[in-house]
Specification:
Layout lengths: L1 H36 L6 E4 L4 E7 L3 E7 L2 E6 L3 E4 L7 H4 L1
Antiparallel strand pairs: 1-2, 1-5, 2-3, 3-4
Protein name: Preprotein translocase subunit YajC
Organism: Thermoactinomyces mirandus
Subcellular location: Cell membrane
Length: 95
Amino acid sequence: MSQWGTLIPLILMFVVFYFFLIRPQQKRQKERTSMLNSLKKGDKVITIGGIHGKIVELTEDRVTLKVSENTRLVFERSAVNSVVSEDEPSSEENK
């Protein structure tokens, strides 16, 4: 009976870790993968470095962003942090 007394706190601790740490992280990773797979030309994005741009070319592993009239930058697809929705004003519209 004392064996169960020592195992129950360990099991409860694992359950707490799973629901508060592991499961939310897996959900965020799945959402990020889905977002990266759904990128398309014309999307306005923000990179992990904070660069805002519009996708002008897209391959399986690279993204080319137009950041100004004459400037295009090439990034790994995984460097895209988020897609800017059309509801949010971009830096170009504020000028």
